[in-house]
Amino acid sequence: MRRLRAPQLQALLTPGLRSVAELFEKKNYELRIAGGAVRDLLSGVTPQDIDFATTATPAEMKEMFTSAGVRLINNKGEKHGTITARLHEQNFEITTLRIDVVTDGRHAEVEFTTDWQKDAERRDLTVNSMFLGLDGTLYDFFNGYEDLKSKKIRFVGKASERIQEDYLRILRYFRFYGRIAEKPGDHEPTTLQAIKENAKGLAGISGERIWVELKKILLGNHVNHLVQLMYELDIAQYIGLPLDGNLEEFARVTKNIQNLSPKPMTVLTSLFKGKDDVTNLDLRLKISKEEKNLGLFLVKQRQELSKAAGPEPLRPYQDFLMDSREANMNSRIFELLKYQGEEQLLKEMQEWTVPTFPVSGHDLRKMGVTSGKEIGTALQQLRDEWKKSGYHMDKEELLSCLKRL
Known about the structure:
The chain is an alpha+beta fold. Among the domains are: 1-150, Beta Polymerase, domain 2 (2-Layer Sandwich), CATH 3.30.460.10; 303-351, no CATH class; 361-403, no CATH class. Helices cover 50% and strands 11% of the residues. The protein has helices spanning 7-12, 15-26, 36-42, 58-67, 116-121, 144-149, 159-165, 169-180, 189-198, 207-218, 223-232, 247-256, 264-269, 275-285, 289-304, 315-323, 329-339, 343-351, 361-366, 372-388, 395-404; strands at 2-3, 31-34, 51-54, 71-73, 82-87, 90-96, 98-103, 108-112, 131-133, 137-139.
């Protein structure tokens, strides 16, 4: 048996977790850390959230926690076998070991078990199928640790069976590939075959679930390789991507934005040829309004709005921002600069503060312009002069300008 003595594990053993562990020990129920948190700990990463697995049934856990006076949080996980207990200001999600009895490609009906290997068998990938005792003992039935060390992504058991239990696992395969694999193209041929044969199953998965996975893929490594693969394996059409996606542009843009922390939508838009592609994506994945607007903006402006030749390359972007009355426009312009690979201009644009137009209607009234219509016209003329000056003219200069006009 392999023992893990990582400082990360020590950090997890909070007073809350120690109290939980004592309760389970007293009743002779086994409690272990499960899945993604084990993978993270073995990779030297501190897990964001930790799932626990146990041999105790939900009823036994409820009984045990209630009689110990521990608060339970009702979060509707109970029918899947999950109980959430709160101790020392910390929530603990603990799930009974289970076997999938019936699966329909979206969700499963489960029955409880005390067999750790049976529970590991129903998990998706070998690197996600390990358990860790709180003493650091690693329980690894499918060589997950070896795969993690050699950066291999494999399904537990037969790929086609795992995928048919939940077709979203196709995208999870891609996501973890982008997170763990060292280089593109290192797939088992049987895995790719299983994905291709089952791609159609993604048509039945909700857009929201797909979008969550797709966003993570778009921000991970090897994204160009993985999206090309989605087209080769006939996945694209079932997840809202255009049939004739612009893969050359995608390859170019994914290179541009490697170190610029783009939004997922910025990366994805490079596949699109026009605004219909954004609309279709929205219909399938129910993206947010902000994401949709960003996609439409990029499709429209990626060619139109570009840097100026000469000493003021940023001027077109600044002018666009000043003319636009929309909130959020500066963040869209940042994304456009990332898309275009303009790292230096992006830095300058992020440091540029939007200047405030120095003249108001009140100033004009003081100068004797009284009719509302005239004030409107004069303000617009002054705004134009101000813009021509690169937003440098101050109130005095603008008002003396008005006398000339």
